[in-house]
Structure formats: structure tokens, C-alpha cells
Amino acid sequence: MIRLATKRDAKHIADLIEQRAVALKQQGSDQWTEYLEQDLMDRVQTDISSGHVYVYEQDESVLASIALLPADDWDHNLWEDGERGQYIHRIVVSERLKGRGIGQQLMEHVLREADTHEPIRLDCVADNAFLNSYYPRFGFVFVDSRDGYNTFEYNMDESVSA
Description:
Elements: E1 2-4, H1 10-26, H2 40-50, E2 52-58, E3 61-69, H3 73-78, E4 86-93, H4 102-113, E5 120-125, H5 129-134, E6 140-146, E7 149-154
């Protein structure tokens, strides 16, 4: 079941992000290393209070999450008009559920819940081949490459299914 996150979910979400950051680091990627150097609980609590964070819950366990947020400093650095839009961040799925379409369900859910009057944006590491081909399946269109990251914006005319 996908639902809006509450403050009680913050620890579970932070744990999922940390586990993924550690796994990426062990694979030799520096993607998400900043999450290992900051107070993740504070980050997740800020996300929950400032935007819409959704979780995938199964048997009363939070096993995935996605955040739809207003622009932050990160977005202002990557986008010329960073004050515009809603930004998808911190999509994470438990290793136990990888390959079961949970990420797809989260993406489809957040796109249905987003304000369609504002652009929906996201980014990924420029050399992440999987994500660079994954996001367009949902109707995201490549916009630019900056500082080693590719930026994408949701095309409302495209389908919302992968």
C-alpha cells in the first residue's frame, strides 16, 4: 500500500536511504554519499514537513519511499529557474523488493498526486544508465546536463506508465 508518510515513518525512511547509500558506495559510486555525511533523520523530517513524502508499506513495514518537494539549494544549483516546479527526490526501495515494480508504483503515484500546474522535475547522476533510460518511460524528458547530473522534466502529454 502506498500512503503519505508521517513523522513516525522518518526513521524507517532514513534507514532505507542510508542502506542504499552504503550499497552504492560499496559498488564504487559516489551517488548519495552526502547522505552518509549528514543527519538523515533531520533531512527526512524536513522532507515530510515541507512536501509530500510517500511510502510503500507492506505488513506494517515501510519498504520504499519517494519525496515530492519544493525546490531546495540542490535544485537551484541544477536548474536555471530552480524556483519553479516540484522536485522528486530520494526514491528508494528496499533490496528485498527490488525488481517487483515498487519503484514504478511510487513514480506513478507521485505523478498522479503532483500539482499539474507546476513542472515536475528530477535529476540523476549523468552516467547512471539505468535511471537515464528509466525516467523517460514515465514521460520525463531530458532537459540539461550540469555538474555531472542530468535533469529531467515531466511531459504532461506523455503516458504515466513504464
